Amino acid sequence: MLIELNGVEKRYGELRALKSVDLALEPGRIGLLGPNGAGKSTLLKTLLGLTPHDHGSVKVFDRDVARDPFGVRSLIGYMPEGDSVLPQLNALQFTAFAGELCGLPRSEAVGRAHQVLHYVGLGEARYRKLGSFSTGMKQRCRLAQALVGDPKLLLLDEPTSGLDPRGRDEMLDLIRDIRERTGASVILSTHILPDVEKTCDQVVVIAGGAILYAGALAPLVASEEGVFEVRAKGEPGKLRNALELDRCVVTMRGTVLEVRVPEGEGARYILKSARTANEQVRHLSPLVNTLERAFLQTLDAAGHSVDGHDAQA
Q1: At 305, is the pLDDT very low, low, confident or very high (cuts 50, 70, 90)?
Q2: What is the arrangement of strands in the sheet containing 76-79, beginning at the earlier edge strand?
Q3: What pLDDT is stored for residue 257 in this prediction?
Q4: Nearest CA to 78 among 133, 3, 145?
Q5: Average pLDDT in the 72-99 region?
Q6: C-alpha distances in Å from residue 41, one per residue of 32, 67, 79, 173, 239
Q7: Confidence grade of residue 297 (pLDDT, cut at 50, 70, 90)
Q8: Which of 14, 167, 196, 276 has the CB geometry, 3.0–4.6 Å to 136, for a possible disulfide?
Q9: What is the pTM of this model?
Q10: How far apart are CA 53 and CA 9, in angstroms?
Q11: How far is residue 141's CA from residue 218's CA, in Å, rounded to a whole number?
């Protein structure tokens, strides 16, 4: 296994940041999702041994983090959230310094720094001071310092935060390529759900310090047979009542109805109900599941909520 957590607890005073977390993940590209304050950053720092856990066991590549934190960190590249660069250094100095902190000899660290800076697209800017870099360039340099030690696992905390659409796409391309090129696993912690859909094959959903889902992405976003998205002309309440009387299961999201028809029925069943109720259907299509919808449903089922700023489409 890539990661194994058993009964992990972490408290900050009275706050339980991690609550009896059991988690087993195979190698791959893994999206870590949750509302603000869910415990995502605490979980990443626990994997690194930077935040000691109070109870339970944490293993990365079958190494116990509590017993061998430096051994574990030698296998991990970490890109923390925020503007965590040294503005007085140039990109080469900063990245080589990170290589030396990983245990590389000075000459090897400099050589590796040249390589990874070219890889992330900063080859021509590697002698510029980081204080003059744009947000996107700083993000690339932070990714370079995470890669310089040739890690087997990358922990990326909000790597696309603050980037424009083009910069975000380029960062996601790099994240996808890292797994293909180096074989390293990636844990991508983000609140931007489409980033996970584009890059990851596994998903972990955490809220209130508890794991709500951990597994493959595909089952979460698979579309269901017999479920349709419906919009009616005017207020949809009357159509909703008619569909429910006809044994449909209806969920209202704003002015949109999500309608599950009885087994064996299809879209014509909805149109028949609407005609009987003298209601006009303006839109009818099979419901396409998205990670955002699955994420919100997972939170709702566990009694959690999230506002629009915590899960960006």
Answers
A1: low
A2: 76-79, 153-157, 185-189, 29-33, 202-207, 210-216
A3: 94
A4: 145
A5: 92
A6: 10, 21, 11, 23, 45
A7: confident
A8: 167
A9: 0.83
A10: 6
A11: 32
